[in-house]
Amino acid sequence: MVVATDDDCIRAAAPGFSGDVTLTCTPHRCGTDRVAEAAGRTAYEVIVNIQGDEFFVNPSVLEQVVDPLTGVEGPDMAKPCKRIDNRGTFEDPNVVKVVTDDAGMALYSSRSPIPCPQSEAVARV
Predict the structure, then answer these.
(1) pLDDT digits (tens, 9 = 90+) for 103-122
(2) Which of 41, 70, 74, 119 lies in the 20 to 30 Å Cα band around 1?
(3) What residues contact 70, with CB distance under 8 A and at least 6 apart?
(4) Mean pLDDT across the chain, nearest whole number?
(5) Lowest pLDDT segment from 2-6, 84-88, 93-97, 121-125
(6) Chain centre to alpha carbon of residue 40
(7) How far is CA 8 from CA 100, 109, 117, in A?
(8) What is the dihedral of CA 61, 63, 66, 68, to 10 degrees?
């Protein structure tokens, strides 16, 4: 496991949970950019991007995401998602919503409800 960070406190804590650390440059727009920088320095076949606000991610979810990536004909990337079954979650901008095709391939994602209510779409223009 490698932890990619620009923070000295995180760098100092990572060895406590068997993590190697790679320091990245500071001005990344997002964690995904930081992971891309770190991935360019490694020879790992599978890279899992767990953002700093996802530290309680369930290991079984990680297995569900990683398993397809290890196959010969697996996808290039995977991301966990599940059906939203309540209105509060559907409207929560902290929850990313995704539209998939029949095969489960992601087509579109948004923090807004999908489809976006017409009144909300007009208010954004």
Answers:
(1) 888 899 999 998 876 665 55
(2) 74
(3) 45, 46
(4) 82
(5) 121-125
(6) 18
(7) 39, 33, 44
(8) -100
